[in-house]
């Protein structure tokens, strides 16, 4: 399992002319390699103005570009099992960002599991050691992870 924080990547904004003139950045190549090594994807995002964040969509756009081998980057999403969770300080917990991201992943051919979780009042939800204070929220988000692992195992055993 690999944890990726997009804050560590600082990718340039995807733009066709940039790609043509300077190629795909090495940091994107690293993400493409990581995606190739994993069967499942769990995306966790805050919400910006009713949608998922621009940096998340930018990363997905870059990763979907052709790989060094020439293989389409979209294949890094196709048939991958995916789940989406969100968090925000508002009462809806970024629910709209989660729904929008599900649509993007489905367009790319990922198998998005039905379970999801939105954490409202996220700025108050964690203890000092980084755990969720509410046992029900903790169980719900763990159920998303368990659902992701379960579907991935079922598909890879076929
Ligand atoms: C430009 C901007 C727009 C935002 N729009 C929403 C929104 O529509 N709904 C929402 O629940 N939170 C919204 N927020 C709050 C974010 O979901 C989030 O809590 C904040 O960016 C901190 O995220 P972080 O803790 O991952 O850094 C917005 C924040 C920013 C900066």
UniProtKB/TrEMBL annotation:
Gene Ontology MF terms:
FMN binding; oxidoreductase activity
Q: Which domain of life is it from?
A: Bacteria
- List, for all copies, the residue spans of the domain called NADPH-dependent FMN reductase-like: 2-122
Q: One short Pfam family name for this protein?
A: FMN_red
Q: Which InterPro entries match?
A: Flavoprotein-like_sf (IPR029039), FMN_Rdtase-like_dom (IPR005025), NAD(P)H-dep_reductase (IPR050712)
Recorded coiled-coil stretches: none
Q: Tell me what this protein is called.
A: NADPH-dependent FMN reductase domain-containing protein
